[in-house]
UniProtKB/TrEMBL annotation:
Location(s), subcellular: Endoplasmic reticulum membrane; Golgi apparatus membrane
Gene (name only): Zdhhc9
Domain notes: The DHHC domain is required for palmitoyltransferase activity.
Family named by the database record: Belongs to the DHHC palmitoyltransferase family. ERF2/ZDHHC9 subfamily.
Keyword Transmembrane recorded: yes
Protein name (Swiss-Prot/TrEMBL): Palmitoyltransferase
Single Gene Ontology BP annotation: protein targeting to membrane
EC assignment: 2.3.1.225
UniProtKB keywords: Acyltransferase, Endoplasmic reticulum, Golgi apparatus, Lipoprotein, Membrane, Palmitate, Transferase, Transmembrane, Transmembrane helix
Amino acid sequence: MSVMVARKKVVRKWEKLPGRNTFCCDGRIMMARQKGIFYLTLFLILGTCALFFAFECRYLAVQLSPAIPVFAAVLFLFAMATLLRTSFSDPGVIPRALPDEAAFIEMEIEATNGTVPQGQRPPPRIKNFQINNQIVKLKYCYTCKIFRPPRASHCSICDNCVERFDHHCPWVGNCVGKRNYRYFYLFILSLSLLTIYIFTFNIVYVALKSLKIGFLNTLKETPGTYPSTSLTVFTVLEVLICFFTLWSVVGLTGFHTFLVALNQTTNEDIKGSWTGKNRVQNPYSHGNIVKNCCEVLCGPLPPSVLDRRGILQQEESTAQEGLCSQAPSMQESPATQGPRQAEESSMKQQDGSIPLPSAVPAPPLSDAEMPEEKQQMPGEVPVPSPDAGRAEH
């Protein structure tokens, strides 16, 4: 006999979230799916710093000051911490509308716009919102089925609407938004300082070695015993990496410092939202550089609204085959069963199945087998016996 049993399987919400994201550590880590350039970032930072600590730092600590490797280690750890915090966090993804919410929004839009004649283009789905006495337009996202909050935008790579969307950065393997922008800014700032620091002391290292044994002898130097020799070829490699990194990282840091001072995002700057033909002033700027920097870098960090590790209950129906049999203590003994019941019981014990009740009715009992009080003719009135009357008296 087949029995359906319902089992409840614990499913985390991150397993059912739409979009193109990768989750690790049971939803604690959230990244974009395209992480190849992020691994290149890790390789460049770790490789350059490992060479610097392995060769130049030992010589510089002895010749100049032991504080040189200490300060370099602090910059390195801070840059790595902010990089991982930027890459592994929720940038501010806005959840998509549920089916009921999407249907209600569609009904509202149809009621507002009315019936659009066939062949005509429907009007844009826009809501007006007032911020600091200025009208800001909220656009409708056809993918997420929501009206996006102010400064939010839909990332085509991660396929999510991100609050205060700045840009999608492949170097960190994640979007940069409201919840991780400050860590992104601190990362590029610390990486710029670290690059300048390593580049400068690599030049100092080559200069000190050149004063002792000459520049050409320094370039020809081979590995040997500390501290007389080192791997100069690796030093030249570090100088080249830092030189080309300076142009991009330091320039990027300067650009985002400008944006922070104006309380503006990269997306707004590219689109020209506040510097276009309309010459609309930025409603989010306080008109003060200090206030803008404090709001962007020191303001309260909103919690994630995704609830990635929340639990969803799902029922799974599984069929189980079993035999329905009575316990031995619940079965009647053959001595107390009638002939027909004993026969059915023996059939049940032989093949293990429950016999169907017989469709043939049992034969009626004869008058001799009938009890005495049942033996009477139809329509006959029973007459009490005289012994019953005597017993009453």
